[in-house]
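Before relying on records like the one below, remember that each one covers exactly one chain. Contacts with other chains, cofactors or solvent are not represented anywhere in the record.
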Amino acid sequence: MWFRFLAHLNFLAKSTNQHGVHSPFVFKYVTQCLYSKKRLHKNKSINILLKTIAYFGFRKISLKNNVEVKELVKQLFPDTQFDENPVDFIFVDEMDIPTFQKIYSGGKLHNDSLILIDSMYKNKETLDQWKYLIALPEITVSIDMYHCGLISIRREQVKEHFTIRI
């Protein structure tokens, strides 16, 4: 309990809004997607998932261990294909370095693929996994939104980490 409370205070102290973003790719994503008034779900992580799918027009998606979310995505985006290689978008509850390396080296990702990780602040271990993950050289963009985190492997992007309040 204390960990999440203190982690949230730390997040609020470090976070910014769109005015602290200098990457055109991330700025557009934050202003046109994350800050759009459209609310597709009451859970913040799932809302971000659905808004991100709509914003980028993703068709090939991988949702790990979440049948209800998969049904919701099918309902809202009927053209979606699940678990095709390579995927545009992956949504997972947690991810560690070996899992990322397996996905990355297995050809499951392409240059514009995104991975959304739910509940990074669940406990100290998941937050540490997040920190180790975003330090990898393959990860060029990471966005910490407290409720979830987004990582990208865009090769043309300079490595940057953003902490965004939503």
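Residues 114 and 164 are 17 Å apart (CA to CA).
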